[in-house]
Each structure stands twice: as C-alpha cells, then as structure tokens.
Specification:
Shape: elongated
Radius of gyration: 13 Å
Structural class: mainly alpha
Helix content: 55-70%
Number of strands: 0
Order of helices and strands: HHH
Strand content: under 5%
Length: about 80
C-alpha cells in the first residue's frame, strides 16, 4: 500500500539520507571486510525496495540506481 503511495508524514529527503548512509558504510568499509555477511544482502534488498517505490525524486533515483548497480556487482560476485 505504501510502496507506491508515500505517507504524507514521511520526509523523502530524510529517508534518502538514511539510505545513503547505509550505502556509504558499505562502499567505504568493503575493503576491510573479509566477507560482507548479511549486510550485503540487506543493502541489496533496501536498494531494490527504494527502486520499486515512487518515494524519491528523479535525481535521487538516479543515485539509487548507481548504488544498486555497485551493490549487485559487489555482493553477488563476492564468492567467485
């Protein structure tokens, strides 16, 4: 219900900033991880949910698409 209809009390910029913090943590800390564990899966699901929603501006969506591409390439190929 809320995936395509953002509740009026939700600040899209605040949600975007929280998602960016999650992405930045993964991007900047990846070299120190022996393996990402569940964080990589959680990040992939978070970004996919963001992309499935209509909560974000077009500029925010462009960034989320880039983050999602990076996360999919990073975490789906981790065991190879």
């Amino acid at each position: 219900m809320y995936l395509l209809g953002k509740p009026s009390g939700i600040d899209r910029n605040r949600i975007y900033h929280c998602v960016k913090i999650c992405f930045d943590a993964a991007y900047h800390e990846r070299s120190s991880w022996e393996e990402p564990g569940d964080y990589g899966d959680d990040l992939n699901m978070l970004l996919a949910t963001c992309l499935a929603s209509n909560w974000f501006t077009s500029n925010q969506c462009e960034n989320i698409v880039e983050w999602n591409d990076w996360a999919c390439n990073t975490y789906t190929n981790f065991d190879e």
